[in-house]
Amino acid sequence: MKRKVLKAIAYTFLILGLLLPFKLFSNSITFSAQVGDTILILKGYTSPNSLVTFIENNVVIGTIASDSSGYFEKNFTAQNDGIHQIQIHSTDIKNISTPVITKEINLISFQTTEINDIVLPPTVTVNQSFFNTGDILIIKGYTIPNTQTELLLNGSLADIVGVLSDSNGFFIYQYPANNFINGNYKFQVFIKDALGQITGKSFETPFNIYIPFPTTPPVVSPIVPPITIVSTPVPTPISESVSTPTEVPVEQPLPPSISNSNTQMTYLICLICTCSLIALLLLIILILLYKSDDDEKKKKQSININ
Of 10, 191, 230, 279, which has the fewest CB atoms closer than 10 Å, so is most exposed? Predict the structure, then answer.
C-alpha cells in the first residue's frame, strides 16, 4: 500500500515537471506576439523645449519634449492595424499653444510605420487688441530656430518684410499703427518648408486700428479796418476836332485847419498889397510936392534976377 502511494506521488510530480515548462514557454510566445508587432513612429519639429502632445479619439496617448533644435520623436508600440487619426500640438516655453494638426495614418500589422514630415505652426501673441495714434503693433512668438516667418493680414500676404527666428526660435514683428488704414484686422504667422510650401499657420488673431483724423484749429485773422480810397477824377483833354464837354471837378472841402490857414494868408497878402500901394502913392505925392517947390524956387530966382 505504501509503495502504491509513493508511486502515485512520483507520477504526479513527473507530470507537473513536464507540463510547467511547456506552459511557461507558451505564455512567453503569446506575450511576445502581442507587444511590438505594430509600431508607429512620429517625428517632427516645433519650437525648442516645447511640450508636444499626441491625441487620439479625444484621449491623450502620449507627450514628449522637443530638444534645443525643436526636434521631437515619439514611438508608439502595440498598435492596432487600420486607420488612425492622430492630433498633434505643442506648448512653447511661454505656455502658448500651437494650433492642432491632424495626421491620418494607415497602420499595417507587424510593420513599423514612420511619419517624419511633421512641422507644427508657430505660436503667436500680440501686445494689444486696439491701436491708436503713436502705438506700435508688436507680434511675437516661437517657432523652429533659424526659420523664415511670413505674415498674413486678413488672409493675404502682408506688405511687411518677413522675420527670421533666432537660435531659440523667437521672432518679433514691430510696425507703427499709423501705417495702417483704420479697420479690423486678423493676422497669422506661417513658415515654409524646403520646397517653399506653407507648412503651418498660427492661430488667426484679431486686432483693431483706429487713427483719428487730425483736426486743424481755425486761424483767426486780425481785424483790419477797411481803407477808403478817394480818387479825384481827371479831366478829359479836349480834342480840336471833337469838342467833348469836360467834367467839372467837384472841389473837396478842406479840413478846418487848412481853411483857416489859407484865410489868414490871403488876409496878410491883401494887407501887404494895400500898404505897398499907400506907400507908393505917398511917394508919388512927395515927389510931386518936391518938384513943385523946386519949380517955385526957380521962378523966384528968375524974378529976382530980373
Answer: 230
Distance between CA atoms of residues 45 and 68, nearest Å: 11
CB atoms within 10 A of CB 216: 5
Residue 80: partners with Cβ closer than 8 Å, 6 or more residues away: 38, 107
Residue 188 to residue 139: CA distance in whole angstroms: 10
Write down the H helix ranges in the chain.
Answer: 2-34, 256-305
Residue whose C-alpha cell is 481827371: 234
Nearest to 155 by CA among 121, 204, 122, 101: 204
Q: Write down the pTM of the prediction.
A: 0.58
Q: Are 193 and 199 in contact (CB under 8 A)?
A: yes
- Among the listed residues 182, 186, 196, the one whose alpha carbon sits nearest the alpha carbon of residue 156: 186
Assess contact for 73 and 42: CB atoms under 8 A: yes
- Render pLDDT for 76-88 as a digit per residue (tens, 0 to 9): 999 999 999 999 9
Residues of the chain with pLDDT below 50 are 2, 5-7, 10-11, 14, 20-22, 24-36, 238-243, 245, 248, 250
154-174 residue pLDDT tens: 988 888 888 999 999 999 999
SS percent in the chain: helix, strand, coil, step 5:
30, 35, 40
Distance CA(82)–CA(142), nearest Å, equals: 35
The answer for residues whose C-beta is within 8 angstroms of residue 4's C-beta and 6 or more apart is none
Distance in angstroms (rounded) separating the CA atoms of residues 284 and 125:
126
In eight-state DSSP terms, residue 78 is S
